[in-house]
Specification:
This protein is mostly helical. 65% of the residues lie in helices and 6% in strands.
C-alpha cells in the first residue's frame, strides 16, 4: 500500500493515521501520540541538559581566554583547586576534584613541580601519603589566573545584574547541597560516589 504524505506537510489527523497504519494501528497510534501530541517541555525538564551544555560552553570560552594568556587548562585547574581548598590535598583527592584519573594528574603535577608552582610534602599523620601544596610562586600564578578569569567572566556576565548573579549563586548552593546529600547517601550504602568539582 502506498502511503500519501499529508498535503499540508504536517502530522496527519488521528483518524487518517488510523487508516494509514491498519493493521498496525495500535503501534502507529502510539508513535503518533508520542511524536505529535506530547506535552511541551517544562522549564524543569529542560534545565539539566541546558545547564550541562551551557557549562561546557562557559568552560570552553574561558579555556580559550586563558590559553591566549599562556595558561593551559591542564595546569591552571589544579592550581585553582589547591587555592580554593587551602592546599595540603592528597593526589587522589585533587584528581577527584579536577575530574581526571590519578595517573593523568601525576604527569601534570610533575610539570607544575618542575616549574616551582607546587610541592609535595609527606603527611604528618601518614608517612606514606604525599600532600600537594602551593608554593609562593604557585600562589602568584593563581593570582594571575584569577585576574584573567575575572576579565573573561566579566564579559560573559555583562547582561546580568549583581542581584541576578546573587540569585543564581543561591540556587547553585541549593543544588550543591542536594548533590552532596546524594553522594553522602551513596557513600553510606557502600557505593562509589566520586565528587567532581571545578
Amino acid at each position: 500500500m502506498q502511503i500519501k504524505i499529508h498535503p499540508r506537510g504536517g502530522p496527519p489527523p488521528p483518524a487518517l493515521a488510523d487508516s494509514l497504519c491498519f493493521p498496525y494501528n495500535l503501534i502507529c497510534k502510539s508513535i503518533y501520540i508520542k511524536t505529535y501530541m506530547a506535552s511541551p517541555p517544562t522549564p524543569r525538564s529542560r534545565f539539566g541538559i541546558r545547564f550541562s551544555l551551557l557549562a561546557r560552553r562557559w568552560r570552553h570560552v574561558l579555556d580559550g581566554h586563558l590559553a591566549r594568556a599562556g595558561l593551559t587548562d591542564a595546569t591552571w585547574v589544579p592550581l585553582i583547586h589547591l587555592s580554593e581548598t587551602g592546599g595540603g590535598l592528597a593526589q587522589k583527592d585533587l584528581a577527584m576534584l579536577v575530574g581526571v584519573d590519578g595517573s593523568s594528574l601525576v604527569r601534570v603535577l610533575d610539570i607544575l613541580e618542575r616549574q616551582g608552582l607546587i610541592e609535595r610534602r609527606r603527611s604528618e599523620t601518614d608517612g606514606r601519603a604525599r600532600l600537594v601544596h602551593l608554593t609562593p610562586a604557585g600562589e602568584r600564578r593563581v593570582a594571575a589566573i584569577r585576574h584573567e578569569l575575572g576579565q573573561g567572566e566579566q564579559a560573559l556576565l555583562a547582561d546580568l545584574s549583581e542581584e541576578d548573579i546573587a540569585t543564581l549563586l543561591q540556587c547553585f548552593d541549593r543544588i550543591d547541597r542536594r548533590i552532596t546529600g546524594f553522594e553522602d547517601a551513596a557513600a553510606g550504602a557502600g557505593e562509589e560516589a566520586p565528587r567532581h568539582g571545578r
